[in-house]
Amino acid sequence: MIDAHVRTRYAPSPTGVPHVGNTRTALFDYLLAKKYGGEFILRIEDTDQDRFVPGSTEKIYQICDLLGLVRDEDPVSGGAYGSYVQSERLEIYQKYAQLLVDIDAAYPCFCSEERLKSLHEKDKFAKYDRLCRKLSKEEVQKKILAGEQYVLRVKFPEAGFTTWHDLVQGKLSLPNNECDDKVLMKTSGIPTYHLAVVIDDHLMKISHVLRGVEWMVSTPVQLFLFEALGWEPPIFAHVPLLLGPDRSKLAKRHGAKSVLGYVDDGYLPEAIDNFLFYLGFSYKDNSELLTLDQMIDIFDEKRIQRQNAIFDIQRLNYLNSQWIKKMPTEDLFLRLNAFIPSEWNDEKVKQILILVKERMFTLRDFSPAAEYFFTAPAVNLQSVLDQSGHTEDETKAWFKTAISVINKLIVLPTPPVIARSESDAAIHPGNSFSSENLHLELAKAQVTSGFTPKEAFMSLRVAISGRSVTPPLFDCMAILGKEETLKRLSSVFS
Fold first, then answer.
1. Cα–Cα distance, 157 to 248 (Å, whole number)
2. What residue spans define the domains of the chain?
3. Annotated binding residues, as ranges?
4. How do residues 426-473 score in pLDDT, each as one tens digit?
5. pLDDT (tens digit, 9 = 90+) per residue, 4-49?
């Protein structure tokens, strides 16, 4: 239970489309804030202009909007602690960087790129050797007056330990000699992550910092800066890594991509939220379908797992299929529009959707499943005979009987082509062209045909669809309509 007012932040860098692990952390940030009636803030950390990718910021917003992660403060809507874009806060960082120098918590470093490179060539794991830390104030001033370029480095303790309580990982302690004097301000006057994040988290009154466990090693430097500036640090919560099923680092070969990639592949945002929620959160049933509001109710920071989470694309497929089944047809149809040809008839699409949604894993599954309703397949006579198990003449006679039965059924002006309740069935007269009457009349004809039900109806199925597996045959005929059904049956032996 958290008593303090909660303010969390999602602070991505616009260096590309955020990966799924980054978005999982954003979801946890949102849930923690909303669980305790707090604020969820979006901050754009764009100080690394060399890695900036145009369009990335817009994609960050798009992902948050798709997943329902509504911001209380962000660069667009603003807030009391803006700007929420780091590149617009440079004067603030420079002010505090100078303060750190003044209080002897940071120092100028004049080492050239060539010297630093040579250190790493000798030992690729070598930390900065703190050469410039040994310079006197007079030597520093002389170099500055001579116009030598410099960066600012943190004057991190060389001995001892940094200890803190992590909301997820528990008590942690790292030896200070494993950290080096990180660069805080570049020669250009642009801050690095280590400085900017500390200043922003304090000035924006961030209470909890949720981030991936890979960032844990940067915590000692940040805690040192908070202490040096006399500020209360936020509570850190380092959430587990996402690994592939083979326990290796999550990669594209495991099916990992950005949220936008999943949406383009036909996954519902609701299913993605659900899937991300279960990646690192301990819940009694990780196949239960949960809305975002339900996740807020369930969320408990004590149940975030310490162990790495396994990313299983089959779990996402399952959750997505269940959300597709659960979603009302009208709502699902609206989501489907981007995945179907514009010329397909809307009402027919909705009727087909009722039939095929039970078999869909993604929205992209619909078009292949529905294509034969709109384009007559090329049906090979032999494939029909293979299903009938009878001679060509016997099968032709059965088709002639089926065509005669269908011809006698009357097309009503506006009947529901598929009955889904007794009230629907009741408005179909006994001689109307409907799935119920097709079933009834063709079943009667089959009894005296010499064909088993499987032989009779599988041969008709292949004839109208070109497939041996479809939704119920008579529903398919009803959606195709009388004219198209007769046309396809007649063409087999023409």
1. 35
2. 89-239, 327-374, 381-491
3. 252
4. 445 567 899 999 999 999 999 999 999 999 999 999 999 999 999 999
5. 899 999 999 999 999 999 999 999 999 999 999 999 999 999 998 8
Q: Which amino acid is at 217?
A: V
Angle at 215 between CA 213 and CA 220, to 5 degrees: 115
**What is residue 366's three-state secondary structure?**
helix
Segments in 167-246 forming alpha helices (H): 193-203, 219-228
- Record the pTM: 0.91
Whole-angstrom distance, CA of residue 201 vs CA of residue 188? 23
Q: How far apart are CA 299 and CA 315, in angstroms?
A: 20
CA distance to 117, 179, 210, 442, 468, per residue, from 112 (Å): 9, 21, 35, 88, 72
Nearest to 481, CA basis, from 445, 434, 437, 440: 434
- Contact (CB, 8 A) for 63 and 42: no
Residues with catalytic roles? 252
**Could you tell me which residues come within 8 angstroms of residue 406 by beta carbon, excluding any fewer than 6 positions away?**
433, 438, 441, 442, 477, 482, 485, 486, 489
Residue 457's Cβ-side half-sphere holds a number of Cα atoms within 13 Å equal to 22
**Binding site for ATP, residues?**
252
Q: What CA–CA distance (Å, rounded) separates 9 from 284?
A: 28
SS3 of 39, please? strand
* Distance between CA atoms of residues 320 and 322, nearest Å: 5
**CB atoms closer than 10 angstroms to residue 453:** 12
Query: Residue 407 is encoded by which pair of tokens?
Result: 């011809």
Given CATH 1.10.10.350, say whether it is the number of domain 381-491.
yes
Cα distances (Å, whole numbers) of residue 375 to 107, 350, 371, 381, 403: 73, 17, 6, 18, 20
- The single residue listed with the structure tokens 């004809």 is 445
Separation of alpha carbons 430 and 410, rounded Å: 9
Task: Give me the half-sphere count of Cα atoms (radius 13 Å) on the Cβ side of residue 397.
Answer: 9
> Which CATH number is 89-239 given?
3.40.50.620
234 close to 333: Cβ distance less than 8 angstroms: no
What are the two backbone dihedrals, phi and then psi, of residue 3, each rounded to the nearest 5 degrees?
A: -90, -30
The partner residues of 191 in beta bridges, in order of sequence, read 185
Say if CB 207 and CB 234 are below 8 A apart: yes
Q: Which residue has the higher pLDDT, 197 or 118?
A: 197
Based on C-alpha coordinates, what's the Rg of the chain?
33
Structure tokens at 93: 């960082």
Asked if residues 32 and 271 have their Cβ atoms less than 8 Å apart, the reply is no
Mean per-residue pLDDT, 349-375: 97
